[in-house]
Amino acid sequence: MKLKTIIIDDEKYAREALKDLLLNFDLFEVVKEFQSATQALKELYKIQPDIIFTDIEMPGLKGTEFADIIKNFDTKIIIISAYTEYSIKAFELNIFDYLLKPVSIERFSKTVEKLQKELKFKSIEKLPVKNDEGIEFIDLNDIKYFESFDKTLIVYHNKGKSEVYKYKISEIESITKNKILRVHKSYAVNIEKIIKFGHLIGKSWFVTLNTGEKVHVSKTYVENLKKRLNL
């Protein structure tokens, strides 16, 4: 399930930066972006967004004023601002989260985890995958890594590879109680299978699994991976 998302910020580069950040999580579908809260207010009931990301200091309505106007609307508001002084007011308005610019992927990951809990993603003991006869279940301990492409999620496991049933890569960490770690917008690995982490000079970061397989790690996820590996 993707969350219908709108972005409100008067600065184009800020909107672009946020969209780039959201691409790391297959949870959001940006359906519209606005330069002002006044513009967004006119289309809010037509769009019916699940999530609204908004700046505060903008021409016309401030983000907090906008939030106050729509406080009874069934949506979650996340403020992204360069200013800390509005945080108390924001939470009085029942804002879902308050992020300071520039937003790191580590901080944003916590927001995503919070969202997923709100959406009640339940943890699983076995992963459902498709086969010729229907659905079978793979033990989490048998999983090596995941690869996502063209709206399809493939899991590589001890018996080969399978297409994952129902779940997206953005949900994998939560449903596996963080046994599986996202290391790239397209890859997630079983952290217990990692035996080596590094990079070649002038080339990308990677992890090596105990099977000898290498999985690409994007720079965006390097620091989070180091923390999980206690490096």
Which helices and strands, and how do they pair?
Blueprint: E1 3-8, H1 12-22, E2 28-34, H2 37-47, E3 51-54, H3 63-69, E4 76-81, H4 87-92, E5 97-100, H5 105-118, E6 126-131, E7 134-139, E8 143-149, E9 152-157, E10 160-163, H6 169-175, E11 180-182, E12 187-190, E13 194-199, E14 205-209, E15 214-217, H7 219-228
Parallel strand pairs: 1-2, 1-3, 3-4, 4-5
Antiparallel strand pairs: 6-7, 8-9, 8-12, 9-10, 11-12, 13-14, 14-15
Descriptive notes:
The chain is an alpha/beta fold and 231 residues long. It has two domains: 3-118, Rossmann fold; 126-228, OB fold (Dihydrolipoamide Acetyltransferase, E2P) (Beta Barrel). The chain is built from seven helices and 15 strands. It has helices at residues 12-22, 37-47, 63-69, 87-92, 105-118, 169-175, 219-228, and strands at 3-8, 28-34, 51-54, 76-81, 97-100, 126-131, 134-139, 143-149, 152-157, 160-163, 180-182, 187-190, 194-199, 205-209, 214-217. A five-stranded parallel β-sheet has the order 2-1-3-4-5. The protein is globular.
